[in-house]
Amino acid sequence: MKIKVFQVNSFAKTVQGGNAAGVVLDADGLKERDMKKIAKIIGYSETAFVSKSEGADFKVRFFTPQEEVDLCGHATIATFHTMAEQGRILPDKYTQETKAGVLQVEVKKDHTIMMNQNIPQFFEIVSKEEIADSLNISLNDMIEELPTQIVSTGLRDIIVPISNLETLSAIKPDFQKIAAVSQKYNAIGLHLFTLETLGESHAHTRNFAPLYGISEESATGTSNGALASYLFEYGEISREEATRLIIEQGYSMNKPSEIIIELETRKQSITGVKVGGRAISFAEVDVEI
After folding, report:
1. CA distances from 212 to 31, 59, 65, 166 (A)
2. Secondary structure class of 57 (helix, strand, coil)
3. Which residue has the higher pLDDT, 157 or 222?
4. How does residue 239 score in pLDDT terms, banded at 50, 70 and 90?
5. Which candidate in 46, 216, 248, 258 is catalytic?
6. Residues 6+ apart with CB under 8 A from 114
7. Which tens digit of pLDDT belongs to each residue from 80-114?
8. Does the pLDDT at position 2 exceed 90?
9. What is the 3-state secondary structure (H, E, C) of 189-203?
């Protein structure tokens, strides 16, 4: 049986940029083992499988080359971009059933796609020494005033504050140690950021998730939703700035990416998180299973 897989760069700043995802429409007839096989063959950090849902407009499952994950931001963007491009949906608001819950996705007329994430949860603060060791850096390379903390808007990420762009760009991590730390804290991986940027953005980031087969990812929706929440929580961005944040990622991989975050706030509380951007389709392949 041949299965068509759409290949899409989500959050692309340029044609070469973004984060590639696979998208399979009409996946109702596929078994879990089929989805795992397709995701492994395609080899992207995530492949999304769309099927009918009883509790939402669509059901979407996400698979890395190794295993299923509850949610994936860039694969969600790729999924709704593909459905719009294929004439399955029009600009509007939709719901998707995921293992992280039923979440809203908005397809805008300018082709930007924004997805709702969960209200942030702030978990334990992780030892900076432990994280620095896994990244082959010193404590002086981290922002002293900000914690290394697990934050989730759907997936648990360890947010790591790095002092400047030069240090962040030069990091050569120990992936075995990152995988061990991620497993220890039940986290997807490490999401590093600095407030020093190349353009008019609010933060520059790198993301490492070797536990899930992703050495480095060029654009990470869920992690940047968590990062934006963290920056607001610790007073690094104002309520006005929080309404539209731009995050840079992927430059260390020559895949320039731009992630848009919109936080809804009431006083000092976050009441809503949206993550989004644009996508570019670049290929279709048929996979034999």
Report:
1. 21, 22, 8, 27
2. coil
3. 157
4. very high
5. 46
6. 105, 106, 108, 260, 262, 274, 275, 276
7. 999 999 999 999 999 999 998 999 999 999 889 99
8. yes
9. EEEEEECCCCCCCCE
Task: Assess contact for 140 and 163: CB atoms under 8 A.
Answer: yes
What are 280's strand-pairing partners?
9
Which domains, from first to last, does the chain contain? 2-116+278-288 (3.10.310.10), 121-275 (3.10.310.10)
Spatial separation of the C-alpha atoms in residues 226 and 188, rounded to whole Å:
12
- Residue 267, pLDDT > 90, answer no
46: annotated active-site residue: yes
- Is residue 96 within 8 A of residue 59, CB to CB? The reply is yes
**CB-based contact 38:289 (threshold 8 Å):** yes
Are 214 and 188 spatial neighbours (Cβ–Cβ below 8 Å)?
no
Whether 15 has a pLDDT exceeding 90, the answer reads: no
Work out whether the CA dihedral 237, 240, 241, 244 comes out positive or negative.
positive
